[in-house]
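User: I'm writing a tutorial on reading structure tokens. Could you give me a worked example: one chain, its sequence, then its tokens, then a sentence or two explaining what the tokens reveal?
Assistant: Sure. Here is the example chain.
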Amino acid sequence: MNTSDNFLKNTGYLAAGTIVLLLIPFIAMQFSGEVDWSITDFIIAGALLFGTGFSFLIVIRNSENVLYKAATGMASAAGLFLVWSNLAVGLIGSENEAINLVYFGVIAIGLIGVFLSRFKAQGMAFTLFGMALACVIIAVVALSLGMQNLPHSSATEIIGVNALFMVLFTLSGILYRHAAQDESKTES
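And here are its predicted structure tokens:
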């Protein structure tokens, strides 16, 4: 099977997996009033799930480096989780707090870095370290502004959630750095 056929097959699996995951809240809505998704919620969730998976497939399509693939998977999953949780409940206070918009800046750093680095492992490492640093800065600014006093928020939660994403992005950056070292060894 050639690479193109494999890519199409994986895209089909991704589409099927996205549909199956979206069936979970759809079925839950039939039995519980606590799950209340609108058509917009399903469209956004589907776009996030399929878009993240498809981006992962495109990025790793031409790479044989296992560390690069692992780093891409971890970064993609962390980015998806960051956006999903921010949209669902908000990471600082509720989802309606304006400060939560800055988390889309973390994703923007990632997207800009991906294209500036041209998907090269070393550049991707710097990008992920930048995303991790952005999470630290957000936590410091949020605490400085007293966001821990908002309803549904505390200093522990702000530090914890930002630390989680900082660790995930840092680990992904470390994997990219090791992938870059492996690439330089094979080139020489």
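What the tokens reveal: The chain has a mean pLDDT of 93. The chain has two domains: 1-62, 65-188.
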